[in-house]
Design goal:
Layout (H helix, E strand, L loop, with lengths): L1 E6 L2 E6 L43 E9 L2 E11 L6 E3 L2 E14 L5 E13 L2 H4 L4 E9 L3 E11 L4 E11 L7 E2 L3 E5 L6 E2 L4 E3 L4 E11 L4 E9 L19 H4 L9 E9 L4 E10 L5 E10 L8 E10 L9 H6 L7 H8 L4 H15 L3 H22 L9 H9 L4 E4 L3 E5 L10 E6 L13 E3 L6 H13 L4
Parallel strand pairs: 14-20
Antiparallel strand pairs: 1-8, 2-7, 3-4, 4-8, 5-6, 6-7, 6-9, 9-10, 11-15, 12-13, 12-15, 15-18, 16-17, 16-19, 19-20, 21-22, 22-23, 23-24
Helix pairs in contact: 4-5, 6-7
């Protein structure tokens, strides 16, 4: 049995007649190393916080469920439209994505189920090809109880480039004992129906947000408790490479302290079942959320047992609705932090209205360049770098605010990168002999007690960088940056 539901855009799904071999190991050589640090059992396994240069991108979530007494997997795939390559056709633009899915027995390593399918995405305008709104594909796969590794490879048929995601999932056998499915989040945008939110981040501006789970074999009086917390996370713009290094105990080094008490408890809700049920879906609505890091904790109890029979936790980020694009003038102003003084930035940001702040923004660039064409080129390049940094280095905070994002914006892509399990070195001198042309980033999350997709890479700072740094800033302000 295979069922599919589709959300967002004009899509023509096509079932392939033959099942190709899924590549169970895909080596991705990328600009900034490997993403998706989470283990197969993590709540954010199968998801990525960053885009991979030149490759398609998607997020995977597999949830074990019972449907009409039959066990199986509900598979959710979130594909940002902008991550595909489009070709022009008579109706607009078209892209084709191929999914190869394999369900592998976790103990013996035997493939017990394979399927592949194509989705043809058609959009009317070029602007639509640049949208990061995901197209959501849902599949129902019937499998017997057991523990499996769900492996999915997404290929862009136009470029023949692929990305790979995995997640371990246990499909329980009906035992008569109470059980709870894996939690998932659903979002409803204004005027639309709810759809699964597969990605690590949730957009602001939603009409409704809810957390959903299924309960099985639960007696009357059983309850589900949800607690929504805001986590304390570093939101600061990265400071220059010649400043003092962050202390290892600081929030700037940790990024997010997942083990610390929450910054705020946003919501606590309890749902109680009046009647016994073989299977029931519990949906709990969440309040509007501002950008930041959040955690949902859910636990289920019977009426006679104080110890939960199931517990789950999921962390997620809330981003601006247009992210990773910069759509608001205040966001554009904030991103000038790397090439302005504090006094200049404060002056640009002054003003009670958006129009006034926009005028200050334009005046800043006008004060640097007399030639409008030069100014336009520099502005375009600078904010292209900022948005690229958002795509490449986003984690618990915006990519341009991170240490790697800062270096990328100021200096551009490195000539080459040396990547290790706990660090990476960006070289801007092909000879790699000049220490002042190389930047070493330490993987701070390597020291955390749990693996998470919300990684933090911290620049090893040195006062010897000051001359190089000020020269890079001066090149931007003189229109000589490349």
């Amino acid at each position: 049995m295979l069922k599919a539901r589709h959300h967002q855009g004009t899509v023509a799904p096509t079932r392939c007649l033959s099942v190709g071999l899924l590549l169970l190991c895909l080596i991705l050589i990328r600009l900034v190393g490997c993403s998706g640090a989470s283990g197969l059992d993590s709540a954010d396994a199968g998801r990525s916080a960053e885009y991979q240069p030149g490759l398609p991108n998607f997020d995977l979530e597999a949830i074990a469920t019972l449907r009409d007494g039959e066990s199986g997997l509900d598979l959710y795939l979130g594909l940002p439209q902008a991550s595909l390559a489009y070709t022009r056709d008579g109706f607009g633009f078209e892209a084709i994505a191929r999914y190869d899915v394999a369900i592998v027995d976790d103990i013996g390593g035997h493939r017990i189920r394979s399927v592949n399918f194509l989705d043809t995405l058609r959009v009317a305008s070029y602007a639509a090809t640049q949208s990061f709104r995901p197209y959501i594909r849902e599949e129902r796969l019937d499998v017997q109880p057991g523990t499996y590794v769900v492996s999915v490879m997404l290929s862009d048929e136009s470029t023949n480039k692929s990305v790979f995601r995995q997640q371990r999932i246990t499909v329980p056998a009906p035992t008569g004992e109470p059980a709870m499915s894996r939690m998932h989040i659903e979002v409803r945008r204004p005027g639309e129906a709810f759809e699964p939110q597969v990605a690590l981040s949730v957009p602001t501006g939603f009409d409704s947000l809810r957390s959903t789970i299924d309960l099985y074999q639960v007696p009357a009086g059983a309850s589900v408790r949800l607690q929504l917390e805001q986590l304390e996370s570093d939101t600061m713009v990265a400071r220059p490479g010649f400043w003092l290094s962050y202390a290892r105990s600081s929030l700037q080094f940790k990024g997010v302290d997942f083990n610390a008490p929450p910054m705020d408890t946003i919501q606590t809700s309890t749902r109680t079942l009046d009647q016994a049920a073989d299977a029931v879906t519990v949906e709990i609505n969440l309040p509007p959320l501002s950008p930041g890091m959040y955690r949902i904790q859910m636990e289920a109890r019977t009426s006679t047992d104080q110890t939960p029979f199931a517990e789950q936790t999921r962390e997620f980020a809330v981003r601006e609705a247009d992210y990773p694009r910069l759509a608001e003038v205040d966001d554009l102003i904030d991103a000038l932090a790397y090439i302005t003084s504090d006094r200049e930035l404060e002056a640009i940001a002054e003003g009670e209205s958006v129009t006034e702040r926009r005028r200050h923004f334009d005046a800043f660039w006008g004060s640097l360049f007399n030639d409008r064409r030069v100014a336009s080129g520099v502005v375009r390049l600078y904010f292209e770098r900022v948005e690229q940094a958002n795509m490449l280095f986003t984690t618990y905070k915006e990519g341009w605010k991170t240490d790697r994002g800062m270096v990328y914006v100021l200096f551009g892509p490195p000539a080459f990168v040396d990547t290790r399990f706990d660090s990476e070195t960006w070289h801007y001198d092909l000879s790699a002999r000049d220490g002042l042309s190389s930047f070493v980033f330490e993987k701070a999350s390597f020291y955390a007690s749990e693996r998470t997709a919300f990684e933090n890479w911290v620049l090893q700072r040195s006062n010897s960088y000051e001359t190089v740094w000020r020269r890079a800033v001066r090149r931007w302000r003189e229109g000589a940056a490349r």
